[in-house]
Write a structure and sequence with these properties.
By secondary structure, this protein is mainly beta. It is about 0% helix and about 60% strand. The protein has no helices and twelve strands. The strands form two sheets. Strands 5, 6, 7, 8, 9, 10 and 11 form a seven-stranded mixed sheet that branches. It has a five-stranded mixed barrel with strand order 1-2-3-12-4. Strand 1 and strand 2 form a beta hairpin. About 25% of the residues are buried. The mean pLDDT is about 90.
Length: about 130
């Protein structure tokens, strides 16, 4: 996914946080490697550190379109459910990007638009 870095908060003792913009919206996320340059664009991979539960923090979102938006201290990702295994491995499609999450419980049918409420979203520069 291509993102533009709008703001950087490097005050955290853990990973720096970046406020970014993409074609799907704006949100905060952790940045995995060296600090990015503000006002630069990057091709990134999205990683989710949360374990999600169907019906609690990942839900069907009928009529929604693909988007990202701030959600408290995290981000809400609206994407299409592409696949879900019994071991929790779940694949979401956000535009042309794939987001892999771990989600347990009873999922909706494949192809359903879902909203996933993520507290630990991390971006990493792909170098492309």
């Amino acid at each position: 996914m291509r993102v533009a870095i709008l703001n950087i908060d490097a005050s955290s003792e853990q990973k720096p946080r970046v406020y970014f913009s993409s074609e799907f919206g704006q949100a905060w996320a952790n940045w995995l490697e060296n600090l990015p340059n503000p006002k630069q664009t990057y091709h990134v991979e999205l990683s989710v550190g949360d374990t999600l539960t169907w019906g609690l923090d990942i839900l069907p979102a009928p009529g929604a379109s693909h988007k990202l938006e701030p959600d408290g201290n995290g981000v809400a990702i609206y994407a299409t459910l592409e696949g879900c295994e019994d071991d929790g491995f779940t694949v979401l499609r956000l535009g042309n990007s794939i987001v892999m999450v771990e989600a347990f419980g009873e999922p909706p049918p494949i192809g359903t638009i879902v909203s996933a409420h993520i507290q630990a979203l991390t971006l990493s520069d792909t170098g492309i």
